[in-house]
Amino acid sequence: IGAPTMNLLRGRAEDGAFVHRALRLGLAGSAAPDLVLGVRPEDIVVGEGPFEARIRLVEPHGHEQIAQLDIPGGDVLTIRADAALPLTVGETLRWGVRAARLHVFDAETGLRLDAACTAPQAFAA
Length: 125
Prior knowledge:
By secondary structure, this protein is mostly beta strands. It has strands spanning 7-14, 17-19, 24-28, 34-39, 44-61, 64-70, 76-82, 92-97, 103-106, 116-121. The protein is elongated.
């Protein structure tokens, strides 16, 4: 539901964290070892944060723009940003997430878990 759709990143629970090839987030309350992190495009903070990505695509939509970011490990994130923010294809930008608004799913069953993400951490897997 929603457009653009939620970003889904496969990862694992490890030492109290959600670990993905490109990022690490503190994690509380997950019992499943294999996880999927759901991140809505509007919950990605552009221009600040511990992560970096290359801009793949920018689509102007009046008061906002939709962009795709290539993150390490081969995944692509779709973001929603204010139209006034300068985004240029090929450039690298910093990004973060609103941890309280993330969704954690069991990768095997697809069920949403009662788990919470905490502060993002820069991570090189």
